[in-house]
Amino acid sequence: MTEQLRMMAVHAHPDDESSKGAATMAKYVSEGVDVLVATCTGGERGSILNPKLQGDPYIEEHIHEVRAKEMAEARDILGVKQEWLGFVDSGLPEGDPLPPLPEGCFALQDVDEAAGRLVELIRTFRPHVITTYDENGGYPHPDHIMTHKISMVAFEAAGDPERYPEAGEPWQPLKLYYNQGFNRPRTQALHDALLERGMESPYGEWLERWESMGRERTLTTYVPCGDFFEIRDKALIAHATQIDPDGGWFRVPLDLQREIWPTEEYELAKSLVDTSLPEDDLFAGIRNN
């Protein structure tokens, strides 16, 4: 392939791009790949998770603008492009019974209608590869599940001239992946390595939850990107309202991460090109066509 390779990462909220596949994106940017993050919502119903910023009245009143500014900083750190799809954050319903989702939010949109915005962006950017979430959303946030739904519709529809004719010239992406960076083998390997070195592990409760769920995903693709873990962490810290820089995300030394698990993982969901599994490149089967 002689044209520039292009990758689109579809995420639910600002900060998701920095916690899921960020090192992969930074790696591909360094290789000259054109990378675009499509952010479905503005994160306006997200909680302030950094205890150092909780109770700040300005942030609470202007959370949408604050998170947009954080996204701009993270985007620049990663070296990616970014577009907003313009949907409204659904929030994470909590309680028993769960409260209804707020009127007009992303998760309550008609899937086919909402997918039209993503189809238009796909046809404009023309990605060869798309990454998104699996049918469980990675975790069951309603916006993550909706992101999966519109991504699946858009992947199939973008190349069909009969669908969304108002959304531009058809373009068919060649591969679609689910982010699976939070997977059990990686977590177990890091947990064991920390304990073997006499260090505290932040992953004990995670592994217990996996045990109770009894569900495993298929990992098909391991992208070597350990050299870009620092960039990933800087982008994540840029989302200051969402991430405590002294919190659990950063308790595993980067050198240990690179030694034990220097990749980010994906599940190949759809491919229109021939490839052999496992892969070490999201563009496997595309580069040589």
From TrEMBL:
GO terms for biological process: mycothiol metabolic process; mycothiol-dependent detoxification. Its EC number is 3.5.1.115. Its cofactor is Zn(2+). Binds 1 zinc ion per subunit. Pfam families: PIG-L. Keywords: Hydrolase, Metal-binding, Zinc. It comes from the Bacteria. InterPro entries: GlcNAc_PI_deacetylase-related, LmbE-like_dom_sf, Mca. GO terms for molecular function: hydrolase activity, acting on carbon-nitrogen (but not peptide) bonds, in linear amides; zinc ion binding. Zn(2+) binds at H13, D16, H144. It catalyses: mycothiol S-conjugate + H2O = an N-acetyl-L-cysteine-S-conjugate + 1D-myo-inositol 2-amino-2-deoxy-alpha-D-glucopyranoside. The keyword Heme does not apply. Monomer. A mycothiol (MSH, N-acetylcysteinyl-glucosaminyl-inositol) S-conjugate amidase, it recycles conjugated MSH to the N-acetyl cysteine conjugate (AcCys S-conjugate, a mercapturic acid) and the MSH precursor. Involved in MSH-dependent detoxification of a number of alkylating agents and antibiotics. HAMAP family: Mca. Belongs to the MshB deacetylase family. Mca subfamily. This is Mycothiol S-conjugate amidase. The lineage of its organism: Bacteria, Bacillati, Actinomycetota, Actinomycetes, Kitasatosporales.
